[in-house]
Amino acid sequence: MDKPFHSLDRHFDLPRIALVEHSRPLAWLKAGWRDMARSPLASLSYGALFAALGYLIMAYAIDKPYLGTAAVSGFMLIGPIAAAGLYEISRRHESGEPTGFFESLGGLRGHRDGLFMFGIMLAFMLIVWERLSAMLFALFYRGDIADVGGFFNHILFSGEYVHFLIAYMVIGGTLAALVFALTAIAVPMVMDRDTDAITAMMTSLRAIGANLGAMALWAVIIVALMAISFATMMIGLVVLLPLLGHATWHAYRDQVER
């Protein structure tokens, strides 16, 4: 049976957005796992690369609480562009092309202009978040904690920093929600077709609006799996980044008219 489409599609010169069930993200994860199993070496190579990068960032910021918290949350902001090679692997699976690591890099070169635009935007968002994080620390935090672990224990369990936690979560959550809405399916769209970054971001926004329940669940899943990655000192990211990357490709394919 044909998929239902969003009722506003006829008013825009953009790809039509298919309506999906709220539970659909579970199917995206299952499809993402299949893609990873079909190209384990290429997929896990991306996971290992960014896990190593994340670990180095955490190691650098371990005794700098404000940088550490900004790095943890900021790492999620660059996730959409970090997974671009994984989208290319999934695309190649569908088209029957070779799916190795170096072949996927070739796909990145072929879409470098669109990816560059997203990279600039996400870098700007990361800088904005780092500055906002520093301002929140200056306004609310008066502790003197030697490392990030001690810092988290202090602010979470001392009861002295409720206002800091609320402000940090509201501002950080708003910025993360904006980035998610603009990029949730935009980067896979750029990897899949000859389109510009603005059109891709508008399509992503419309997908969020049309499938709010499914995309909200998808955002929760992403946050939960990334939290597991950080809790395991990035070891979990070796598997979870490829899983999320491939699943995001299927989220795009499921919602945007082909």
List the helices and strands and how they pair.
Layout (H helix, E strand, L loop, with lengths): L23 H15 L1 H22 L3 H13 L1 H4 L1 H12 L5 H10 L1 H29 L7 H10 L4 H22 L2 H7 L4 H14 L1 H20 L5 H19 L3
Quickly describe the structure:
The protein is mostly helical and 258 residues long. It has one domain. It contains 13 helices and no strands.
Structural Rg = 19 Å
Mean pLDDT: 85
Count all strands and give the number: 0
- Uncertain segments: none
What string, H for helix and E for strand, traces the elements in order? HHHHHHHHHHHHH
Please indicate the percent range of residues in DSSP E strands (runs of 2 or more): under 5%
Alpha-carbon distance between the two ends: 16 Å
Percentage of residues in helical conformation: over 70%
Q: How many H/I helices?
A: 13
| Biggest sheet architecture | none
Note the overall shape. globular
Q: Give the domain tally.
A: 1
Structural class given helices, strands, pairing?
mainly alpha
List keywords for this structure.
76% helix; 258 residues
Can you put this structure into words, describing what you see?
The protein is mainly alpha-helical. 76% of the residues lie in helices and 0% in strands. The chain has 13 helices and no strands. The two termini are 16 Å apart.
